[in-house]
Design brief:
The protein is of the alpha/beta class. The chain is built from twelve helices and nine strands. It has a five-stranded parallel sheet with strand order 7-6-5-8-9. Strands 2-1-3-4 form a four-stranded parallel sheet, with helices on both faces.
Length: 328
Amino acid sequence: MTLSDIQLDRRGNLKHFLTIEGLSRELLTEILDQTEGFLGVAEQAVKKVPLCRGKIVANLFFETSTRTRTTFELAAKRLSADVLNLNIDTSATAKGETLLDTLRNLEAMHVDMFVVRHAVSGAAHFIAEHANPHISIINAGDGRHSHPTQGMLDMFTIRRHKGDFTDLCVVVVGDILHSRVARSQLLALNTLGAGEVRVIAPRTLIPTHMETLGVRVFHDLREGVRDADVIVMLRLQRERMRGAMLPSEHEYFQLFGLTEERLSTAKPDAIVMHPGPINRGVEMASQVADGRRSVILEQVSNGIAVRMAVMSMCIGTQNLHAQEETRG
Ligand code: CP
């Protein structure tokens, strides 16, 4: 069974959200359109809608997170779901319980959705294969593989600023090799029909097959950002590097760090993005991170609405199946 087979039901409705791979342009556009509708919830006096009332969402974060975990929690609460945040350090996992046993115990509590972050690529897919079929799984980042809601919140932010993807030049800069965010972004950009996609990185931080993904590869930042509409900076994932892949952070910044001066070759209205956490003075200068072209904090706010869209679509699919089962 392919990844896209497992995350869609037989009518093509979203049941799990594990990866952007295999999803159609129509489905990605539906997620973006639904997100537009959820943005306004943050402006309401009572920041809630009842779409997931009575549902239980369990956040299972086996790896550190600030933005993703908290925005998933807020998204679930804004949809009126009850939220369980499992503290992995103090849970039975720390006492040796297997992932499947933890899963079975949470299933016994009638959880409706697991939001999973794990250091191992494929972990969310594994859980989707083994969980009770009534439960939806959302991948909140698995190893180097995929971070689909981050990919979609980045697409949403780009669409808000630039409209249609067709004529855009989008540049992704940094540690492409270890980045699940980059993988999700590149898949989404290709599916949504972005005009030109470039990646810029040192030779040691770029996978060998990159050109086959329809992207142009650059090793020179100044050249790569020329005339770009969107520049996405990535964090150096030191925790995933084995051995010396880079001389030093200082030298990396000298060659690949985004400064105001290097940004001057991009289009005058270019936007600068970063999924966070930022390493100031490594990936970008503070002037750029806090500058007028930066939409980094907007990405975080948009993340809540995107996660509301994805969660409500999956719960909507569950409700549809439950109604069909009741009707027999
Ligand atoms: N962008 C992102 O995944 O950030 P966190 O690791 O803080 O969740």
